[in-house]
């Protein structure tokens, strides 16, 4: 059965924005000491694709020893966006990303499923001139698996006809839960039991083989 739909994560797959967001997490945690900062960065790195608000809640619970309040969560969200947003607006694309979008736009439905907040995701992709490539763009708070299942329903495609492209274990787990194909990007996923590339420069050739 041929490939009918492409679904992309955003950070680390379309935009080379993962280092920007790592710096933002470090900056938030730094007032609590070097060890706290390093634990925040490590948790963020290991849990790529997870909503930043879940990461904030983990930090308060596991590092500070108490639950985060709604006010603190909202404040951390505002500060995180302030630290990261300007850089994300200017950061480069992942090599090969534009070639993939231009090749398949109009030939296959393209979607974004990201752990970034919906409003921020829409803003950045509009400003970068990328939003129009996609049939729809979906961000948190729903889990990535729920977003991916929503795409399949809206696009009216089967899981085995759909490719999820991601750079984190969260993306791989979502594809596995929903039953889609998966293409891994970047160092974190190298060596897994799925097709993989350091970036997106080899993806067009791989997709062509599936059609």
Largest sheet: 6 strands, parallel
Q: Quickly give the structural class.
A: alpha/beta
How are the strands of the largest sheet arranged? 3-2-1-4-5-6
The H-level CATH homologous superfamily of the largest domain, spelled out, is HAD superfamily/HAD-like
| Overall pLDDT | 96
Helicity range: 40-55%
Using the alpha-carbon principal axes, give the shape. globular
Whole-angstrom Rg: 17 Å
CATH class of the largest domain: Alpha Beta
Q: Compute the number of strand runs.
A: 6
Report the CATH architecture of the largest domain: 3-Layer(aba) Sandwich
Looking at the structure, the CATH topology of the largest domain is Rossmann fold
Stretches where pLDDT is under 50 for at least 5 consecutive residues are none
- Taking the alpha carbons of the first and last residues, their distance comes to 8 Å
Number of helices: 9
Number of individual domains? 2
């Amino acid at each position: 059965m041929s490939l009918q739909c492409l679904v992309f994560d955003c950070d680390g797959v379309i935009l080379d924005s993962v280092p920007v967001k790592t710096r933002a997490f470090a900056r938030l945690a730094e007032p609590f000491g070097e060890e706290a900062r390093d634990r925040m960065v490590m948790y963020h790195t290991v849990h790529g694709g997870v909503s930043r608000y879940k990461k904030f809640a983990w930090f308060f619970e596991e590092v500070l020893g108490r639950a985060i309040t709604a006010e603190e969560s909202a404040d951390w969200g505002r500060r995180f966006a302030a630290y990261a947003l300007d850089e994300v607006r200017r950061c480069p694309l992942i090599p090969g990303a534009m070639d993939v979008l231009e090749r398949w736009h109009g030939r296959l439905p393209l979607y974004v499923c990201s752990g970034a907040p919906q409003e921020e995701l829409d803003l950045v992709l509009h400003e970068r001139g990328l939003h129009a490539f996609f049939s729809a763009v979906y961000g948190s708070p729903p889990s990535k698996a729920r977003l991916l299942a929503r795409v399949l329903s809206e696009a009216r495609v089967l899981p085995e006809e759909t490719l999820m492209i991601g750079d984190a274990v969260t993306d791989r787990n979502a594809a596995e839960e929903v039953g889609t194909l998966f293409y891994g990007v970047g160092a974190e996923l190298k060596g897994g039991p799925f097709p993989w590339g350091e970036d997106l420069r080899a993806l067009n050739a791989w997709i062509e083989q599936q059609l």
